[in-house]
Amino acid sequence: MQIVLISGLSGSGKSIALNVLEDAGYYVVDNLPAALLPQLVTHLRGAGWARAAIAVDVRSGASIAALPSQVEQLRDTVSDLRFIFLDARDETLIARFSETRRRHPLAGDGVTVEEAIKRERDALARIAELAHRIDTSDLHPNTLRAWVKDFIRVEESQGLTLMFESFGFKYGIPLDADLVFDVRCLPNPYYDPRLRPLTGCDEPVKDFLRKIPEVTRMSEDIRRFIANWLPAYMRDNRSYLTVAIGCTGGQHRSVYIAEWLADRFRDQLSVIVRHRSAARRAADRGAAAVHAPAAEEKQS
């Protein structure tokens, strides 16, 4: 039986993740009181369900405090238990509640949305440490859907999954990063007009960066650091290790090095690559194209 637990801050995208899992054939339960989790799993197993996705969050009230111990107990009885924790920066969450005009579950009675988010973050701090965290602050909904699909495609039997994530420092450091490497000191392809619209996945950018000794040396130093410390992270019984590589805009250098590193570890571990800022720009360009006047579309 495979169980996917989903938790996280209100407004971080839990409903999007649940919809992805429901479309993938999972039995989905939203807003389950944490105290009922063991009984639900027993019932679903007896009913013959092979896969289920269950959202448990601060709406459970005081019973949410029991979730960490329940997760540990479930690991002994469920062959494939996965846990996603969705997070986002405070200012992003505040903006989302303002745009949707939804009420935060802990707001009201003189408690502002900002204060409610802080209370919720404090209440879920221990739970976040148990799960694979996804920072949705700068993610387009389609990007989040794709990342959740990647998460459920990974085979549990493969042990630790190594995740390389490129990002742009100007958008902030991802909240889900376990290790962060800053590559802004390297020469930037952005200043070449021919390379500016491309990404680190494009051959012209790769050729530009391959020829620079500092890029090769830094990439190799990061690879060596990860390789040396991977056994320690494995002994910590982690399911995921997220390595974030950051440059200024998250388009060229960080994307190239994240892909380079992923190629070096694919023969040892399960590897996932994410390009946070590049995905954000692609989504923004797509949205701009959809809303562009017809005349502009013909001109392009």
Q: What is the structure about, briefly put?
A:
The chain is of the alpha/beta class. The chain has 11 helices and 9 strands.
Topology record:
Blueprint: E1 2-8, H1 14-23, E2 27-29, H2 37-46, E3 51-55, H3 67-75, E4 80-87, H4 90-100, H5 113-128, E5 132-135, H6 141-153, E6 161-168, E7 179-182, H7 203-210, H8 213-235, E8 240-247, H9 253-265, E9 270-275, H10 276-291, H11 294-299
Parallel strand pairs: 1-3, 1-4, 2-3, 4-5, 6-8, 6-9, 7-8
Helix pairs in contact: 1-6, 4-5, 8-9
Biggest sheet layout: 5 strands, parallel
What is the number of E strands?
9
Total helical segments: 11
Task: Give helix % range.
Answer: 40-55%
Structural class: alpha/beta
Task: Describe the 3D structure.
The protein has a five-stranded parallel sheet, sandwiched between helices. Strands 7-8-6-9 form a four-stranded parallel sheet. The chain is α/β, with parallel strands linked by helices. 45% of the residues lie in helices and 18% in strands. The protein is globular, with a radius of gyration of 21 Å. Helix 4 (90-100) crosses helix 5 (113-128).
Properties at a glance:
globular; alpha/beta; 300 residues; 4-stranded parallel β-sheet; disordered C terminus; 11 helices; 5-stranded parallel β-sheet; single chain
